[in-house]
Amino acid sequence: MPKLKKLLKKAVAMTPLPFPDQTPAKNPLTEPIQLVHEYIRAWDAKDAEAIGRLFVEDADFINVVGLWWTGRHSIVKAQQFGFQHAFANATISISKVTQRFLGDDAAVVAAQWQISGQVDPDRQPVDPRRGVISATLVKLADGTWLGVSCQNTDIAMAADTFVSREGRLTATSYIKGPSPEEVATAELVDD
């Protein structure tokens, strides 16, 4: 409990950096939803610096396995590492994008993505992955937008949660569907 009290005192004492008056992005975001499109453009170009410029200086970015990067510098370094080791020849595509305003100067955007061309640590090709990215943005004094927080999540197919056993997460579903035998023998219905 004393350790928690110390952490809480530190959290309360933290002063966030002020938002900049204007965006550092090369292509200023005039609408929040543009963050997704600019992120994809920068990701496909393997331009970690451009990704970093989409966010405020002290932004938070949580990746698909829960690693929490704080600050533009950390976001850029992590993206660079991924481009060098896992995603050098990978491509990303978007299938759905949403935008929700939270007043005049804040918004949330979300998008479903698919990555193809990733390699494992031994540089062997792996199957495509699907996921969802969500970001909270703030409107700056110049009328443009920057991300303040971002969460990236893999989609675990045919699952609604994870269970943990011996330190390993396994995608699991509590929703019962047809058995593999029932699916194999089912008749296709054409509407």
TrEMBL record:
Pfam families: DUF4440
Residues in DUF4440 domain copies: 34-145
Domain of life according to the entry: Bacteria
InterPro entries the UniProt entry points to: DUF4440, NTF2-like_dom_sf, Steroid_delta5-4_isomerase
Protein name (record): DUF4440 domain-containing protein
Species for this entry: Micropruina glycogenica
